[in-house]
Amino acid sequence: MPRDTLTGSRIRERRVAIGVKQADLARRAGISASYLNLIEHNRRRIGGKLLLDIAAVLDVEPTMLTEGAGAALIATLRETASELGGAAELDRVDEFAGRFPGWAQLLADCRARIVTLERSVETLTDRMTHDPHLAASLHEMLSTVTAIHSTASILAEPGEIDPDWQTRFHRNIHEDSARLAETSRGLVTYLEADEADATRTGTPQEELDAALEATGHHVPELETAGGSVDAAMERLGQDASLSAQGLLRDWLTRYAADARALPLDLVETPLRRHGPDPVALAHALDADPARVMRRLATLPPDLLPEPVGLAICDASGTLRYRKPLPDFPMPRFGAACPLWPLYHALNRPGVLLSLPVQQPGRTGPGLWAEALAVPRGRIAVNDEAIYEAQMLVRPHPLVSETPVPRPVGVACRVCPREACAARSEPSILAPAG
Amino acid sequence: MAGQVLLIEDEPNIIEAIKFILSRAGWDVATHSNGVDAAEVVRARAPDILILDVMLPGRSGYDILRELRDDPGFADLPVLMLTARGQSKDREMAERAGASRFMTKPFANADVLDAVRALTGA
Question: Can you tell me the ipTM of this complex?
């Protein structure tokens, strides 16, 4: 039980570190020097008031003496040892961290630093071949990382190292890390200046998502009779890349058509009566339910205080529009949960699905979803229609009998549901309890 | 005494770390930090094994190695090359220049020691 038996060693370590004589500590703790000597050599157990007294004299938390270094530090040291592949005595890692907390922390910090740097170096290796300035900076960084790595490994090894060498290596790591900080700062500045344009905000789809989120999915320029897409473009598309401007213009053009067909003053009255129920509203307004869903997602807070979420995907399942809700997040990249009614709608085009859904780990009444797949564009002759699916997510309506909500997720990677037939990749989360 | 290692590398703290590890394992370690006259230093010292960095001031490690391999006296000298670039292209270049072994920075200390031992049969 190393944890139990090392309290004495830690007391001794701490006492020596702050320059207190054994006899002085014994006197102030009210015990004999020989008894303290036995404690310090882990031959007598110590606890209770005596431990508290000694901790007070040594000016440390009693748990520092009984438990030594934190579990996180120990775990990091273990990882370091396994990664660097040295012959470190893993069974004595507790003792090392307890007796040399400063060195142990330094080692852990070095490893964290090495990991970060190795990662950034990996990411940048591709560019290395193309850019001489980058190649030089990266070479410098790699050299410095190598020096730190080697030196830290020597310090991490078990066994005695001459104190002069120890000091020297410590100083080398310090110097190298300063140099590394300087080089990386220079590199970041260089890369930021270099990537000022196209790569800045990611894909055009992400730019579209960001622009729509910034305007709250509501575009006042398109709500008036003479509203123009150009005016809206000028405000929303200013900083967007050309491709994103194309996507944005398409979306705004569709918005304008929806707004012309279902102007706010027409929507207001049935909305007060039915709430954001796309089926009831489509009946009341004699309108296309898909259009009603899109329209609901654009309503301002004074008309619809509790917003609705909307997802639109193309026939490949790729999300083309996303307006998430706090209780219904949507993945920013990659595929969403295959259990979403959005995708079931693609299985049954033209059938409006309406059902309660629940995300994992959320309590309360859950949410209600409507999903519908309709052909996009004109009906082609002797050719397949290209379908597009929409899913509206709204607060649970008051219904007399609530069916069991369908369990859905956000995306497999962040989903805790283990037993799921639709799972396509392992989750990074621990399984739900 | 396990033998003499000549380390040609321009990064002082890497030199210090490698020197420490190898010396502790019983090797006699000589160092040199310049590419220009590196080949002459190798000839003068005639080490049992050469550890050669690729990116050296003045002259590339590949050039130095090619020159040594053309010299019958050093055609069989064990050479461990160090490089900061892991692309297969670099490995290929090192092999073509005649490196006995190739190691990418950052490396593990134990790997350097193992490589030195393996290459010299020590």
Answer: 0.84
B3-120: CATH, from 3.40.50.1980, 3.40.50.2300, 3.40.50.1000, 3.40.190.100? 3.40.50.2300
For A213-265, what is each residue's pLDDT tens digit? 889 999 999 998 877 899 999 999 887 888 889 999 999 999 999 999 999 99
* pLDDT per position as a tens digit, B72-101: 999 999 999 998 766 667 788 888 889 999
How close A172 comes to chain B (CA, Å)? Answer: 6
Neighbours of A393 (CB within 10 A): 27
A150 near B CB under 8 A: yes
Please state the three-class secondary structure of A377-400 as a single string.
CCCCCCCCCEEEEEEEEEECCCCC
- The Cα of B63 is separated from the nearest Cα of chain A by a number of Å equal to 19
Residues of B with CB below 8 A from A148's CB?
13
Best A119, A146, A164 member to test B by mutation, with max B CBs in 10 Å, is: A146
pTM for the structure as a whole: 0.46
CB contacts, 8 Å: A118 with chain B = 106
Q: Which two tokens stand for residue B8?
A: 């040609």
- Minimum Cα–Cα distance from B21: chain A residue: A154
Cα separation values, A93 from A151, A224, A302, Å: 19, 71, 61
